[in-house]
Amino acid sequence: MKKWVFTFFIVLLASVGLSKEIETEAAERKVTVLFGDSNTAGSNWAANNYYSSAKWANRLLKTRPVINAGVGGNSTGMARQRFKRDVLNRNPKTVIIMFGTNDAQIMNSNRLPRTSKANFNKNIRYFVDTLRARRINVILMTALPVIEGGQGHYYSRNREALYKPYGGAREWHDSYNDITRSIARQKNVPLIDTYRLFIQAAGGNTDQALSASGLYDPTGIHMSMHGANELYQAVQRTLEVKRM
């Protein structure tokens, strides 16, 4: 009996020591990591001759240390392969996650999305659960509403017919955003609803309103400098309110 009690206290002391170590490490963290695809990376900036300083990631640098871990073209499956290297190994204080645009793309070759909704759900949950287990702050973001028709926009690269059963590409993409929204609610994680933010700023959920808003570059899926400013303001407000 005495041996069992002694062992119990040793294990208890070790767990308390580990908990304090984690708390100390969390308190010392300062870096914010931005984890996403091209709209995080700003992959379209050079092609449009935008000012580098106007990227929403670079504007955040004025108020905090930031690492931009966005990679153009990434789905959540691809991002999961680099999650440890690009996010966990940075020992961040806060991680802001935005995916969905590439995951929701229905491939012309097999008429299937690049990432199924089930796998998208698993991947986002994996990111959130892993980070929170390490006491790292998490903010989730939804993906932008795409501009479907018109020269150079979404349907110029993707077959419109594949999206018609779902109400169009914009509605289909937003069904992936619904997964992100649901996880944010269930996990009590702050959410920046970029999709709704852009629709509100544009004054409507139509190609015409989104095109005229000045929020997008000519591709209809990437932010302009004006769009990046809208997103920056929302991110900065959230970080301040949540004291992250």
Number of domains: 2
Radius of gyration: 20 Å
Distance between the termini: 47 Å
Taken from the alpha-carbon principal axes, the silhouette is globular
> Roughly what fraction of the amino acids lie in strands?
5-15%
In round numbers, the mean pLDDT is 92
Largest sheet: 5 strands, parallel
Q: Which fold name corresponds to the CATH topology of the largest domain? A: Rossmann fold
Number of helices: 9
Low-confidence stretches: 5-16
CATH class membership of the largest domain: Alpha Beta
Task: Identify the CATH architecture of the largest domain.
Answer: 3-Layer(aba) Sandwich
Number of E-state strands: 5
So, the CATH homologous superfamily of the largest domain? SGNH hydrolase
| Strand order, sheet with most strands | 2-1-3-4-5
